[in-house]
Specification:
mainly beta, 3-stranded antiparallel β-sheet, elongated
């Protein structure tokens, strides 16, 4: 019995997961307030977070990996 499968005319190994998101690329957008805390809401896009943030009060739009929220980039 063969463990090979055919998908779209190509032989594929069914033991290999397909279309699985790489958790290292799970980047989320948030707003970091002046007091160092993230706001308690999620943003679908950086533009949405930018529109919500108040930079005049010290807010910063940040992107971070959801596995390690300690790595902020602006």
């Amino acid at each position: 019995m063969s463990t090979e499968a055919v998908q779209d005319g190509k032989v594929v190994d069914p033991t290999v997961l397909a279309d699985v998101d790489d958790p290292r690329e799970a980047i989320e957008v948030g707003v970091l307030m002046a007091n160092g805390r993230l706001v308690g809401r999620h943003f679908a896009t950086r533009a949405e977070a930018t529109a919500w943030a108040r930079p005049e009060e010290g807010d910063r739009v940040v992107e971070f990996n959801v596995l390690c929220e300690c790595d902020f980039t602006s």
